[in-house]
Amino acid sequence: MTQDGVDELRLRLREFAAERDWEQFHTPKNLAMALAGEVGELLEIFQWLTPEQAAEVMDSGRADDVRDELADVTIYLVRLADILGVDLLEVAHTKLDRNHHRFPPGDVRSRADVPPVSR
Amino acid sequence: MTQDGVDELRLRLREFAAERDWEQFHTPKNLAMALAGEVGELLEIFQWLTPEQAAEVMDSGRADDVRDELADVTIYLVRLADILGVDLLEVAHTKLDRNHHRFPPGDVRSRADVPPVSR
Amino acid sequence: MTQDGVDELRLRLREFAAERDWEQFHTPKNLAMALAGEVGELLEIFQWLTPEQAAEVMDSGRADDVRDELADVTIYLVRLADILGVDLLEVAHTKLDRNHHRFPPGDVRSRADVPPVSR
Amino acid sequence: MTQDGVDELRLRLREFAAERDWEQFHTPKNLAMALAGEVGELLEIFQWLTPEQAAEVMDSGRADDVRDELADVTIYLVRLADILGVDLLEVAHTKLDRNHHRFPPGDVRSRADVPPVSR
User: How confident is the model at residue A118 (pLDDT cuts 50, 70, 90)?
Assistant: First the structure.
């Protein structure tokens, strides 16, 4: 039987923090800041790239940096959600259910002035 | 057989974008910016709260806002990773394997000057 | 005699906070989060625009939004610097002095792999 | 006669970019991302600090890092505003004029549920 991957990561992060006595630092404010800090590092990889260069970043010398920053963002997002008791996949699907009705495909086709995918 | 939850969300986001012809907007630069924008909205929920208020945010009137922003962050993170061909759970575990050795529990116990969980 | 503009804004922000008894919220952590939140709103304006649309944003219907977000970013940056006792113009010039030597014009001409302007 | 400090920095940044042929990278989207990236680095300094530690950060070993990140944020903000043709001090004062009326001191005294200083 397969345990869901997000849940497995969530439990590993709990253990990781516990065995280092780092739970005291993992408050919602601190984790939200840490999440934003890692997203900032992700932006730095892309900031000076042309759209064409950005599209090929995984074939460039920055591929490992991209993987590294996406790992950090994932880690802090999953840890923050665990602290807050939020199921990330569940809230994402709930949001998409709502957006499916807010943005009917026929109404928003190809339009950038309505928020693609989400909000 | 259970399909992994992240993978299921990833495929739903592909379909969501495709049926609205929004793939043209979903470049790595644009999605990284969108991810950062949603994290910014998450920060705004917490910015004026005391640590105590932040710890109880899910029992406050802002609980739905927190769920909503976490949903948006998750959606853009999963969509960005799909565009880049990165498996978020895999890179997170790889990072944790490395950090487990960089930060041995006995060396970093209770210390805030080493980056908790990640980095 | 002209008082420097940043200093004038700094003093106005002090007064603004004092007459509302908001100094208690203006801690470095909170203001750094607020600054990041406003930068996130700025990103949201640009995130789906093509480079061409972004270059003409001040001739579009989003011009007032851009001014509004730049105002918020400026306000929180000046307020944070005041709380920390940092002179923003002085530290910016010090950084540029250093970068002038780190990135001699002849060595970095047209190169995106060295960080333009700063860092 | 004193030239305004922001204006002086703005002109220095123009020259700095021109003599390195970096103007091509300084698009609004790229500069907004760079601004967000630097704010992310600022957040990283504060993320694990207690409110008490954060209040004393300028007396700690991180003081130079704070000055450095505030310098970078200032540089990108002033450069972005120059590219967009926005006067940062003017828009900040316009916003404060508006907020002065939206948040009359007597109505919002000590309240965190109205946005301090701005927004």
Answer: low
Of D27, D29, D72, the CB nearest to C95: D72
Interatomic CA distance for residues B91 and C34, integer angstroms: 30
How far apart are the C-alpha atoms of B51 and B49, rounded to whole Å? Answer: 6
pLDDT in tens, D17-74: 999 999 999 999 999 999 999 999 999 999 999 999 999 999 999 999 999 999 999 9
Give dist(CA D118, CA C38) in Å, integer.
Answer: 10
Q: Tell me which long-range contacts B107-110 makes (C-beta under 8 A, separation of at least 24).
A: B108/A20, B108/A22, B109/A20, B109/A21, B110/A20, B110/A21, B110/A22, B110/A24
C109 domain-assigned: no
Residue B57 lies in a domain: yes
For residue B34, tell me if it sits in a domain. Answer: yes
The answer to whether the pTM exceeds 0.90 is yes
The count of structural domains within chain A is 1
Residue D48 touches partner A, C-beta closer than 8 Å: yes
Terminus-to-terminus CA distance in chain B, angstroms?
A: 35
User: Could you give the CA distance from residue A56 to residue B112 in angstroms, rounded to a whole number?
Assistant: 37
Residue indicated by tokens 């130079």? D64
Measured between beta carbons, the chain D residues lying within 8 angstroms of B117 are none
Which among D88, D90, D110, D113 is the top mutation candidate for probing chain C, defined by the most C β-carbons within 10 Å of its own β-carbon?
A: D88
Q: Cβ of C69 under 8 Å from any chain D Cβ? A: no
Contact D37 A43 (CB under 8 A): yes
The answer as to whether B11 is a domain residue is yes
pLDDT in tens, C85-116: 999 999 999 999 999 999 888 887 777 776 55
Residue C82 sits in a domain of what CATH number? 1.10.287.1080
- D40 close to D69: Cβ distance less than 8 angstroms: no
Range of the domain at B81: 5-106
Task: ipTM value, please give it.
Answer: 0.93
Structure confidence at residue B108 (pLDDT): 77
Structure tokens at B48: 């004026």
